[in-house]
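A reminder from the course coordinator: this example appears on the midterm review sheet, so study it carefully.

Given structure:
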């Protein structure tokens, strides 16, 4: 149970929430027709790659063990 709580708390990090909010905004804009859906793919690739790559690098630098 403690492991589940710890993993849930790790999901609620600010940078991950910002990334998910950013992604949902672009999905909404693509569905609403405000931007081209192919642009969303390029934006997702850049944003997710940056934030989650940085998150993983920081976790490993802190001694975290990702499995």
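Designed residues:
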């Amino acid at each position: 149970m403690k492991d589940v709580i710890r993993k849930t708390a790790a999901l609620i990090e600010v940078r991950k929430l910002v990334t998910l909010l950013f992604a949902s905004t672009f999905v909404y804009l693509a569905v609403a027709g405000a931007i081209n859906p192919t642009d969303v793919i390029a934006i997702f690739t850049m944003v997710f790659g940056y934030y989650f790559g940085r998150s993983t690098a920081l976790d490993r630098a802190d001694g975290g063990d990702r499995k």
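The helical segments are 2-11, 14-32, 37-61. The mean pLDDT is 76.
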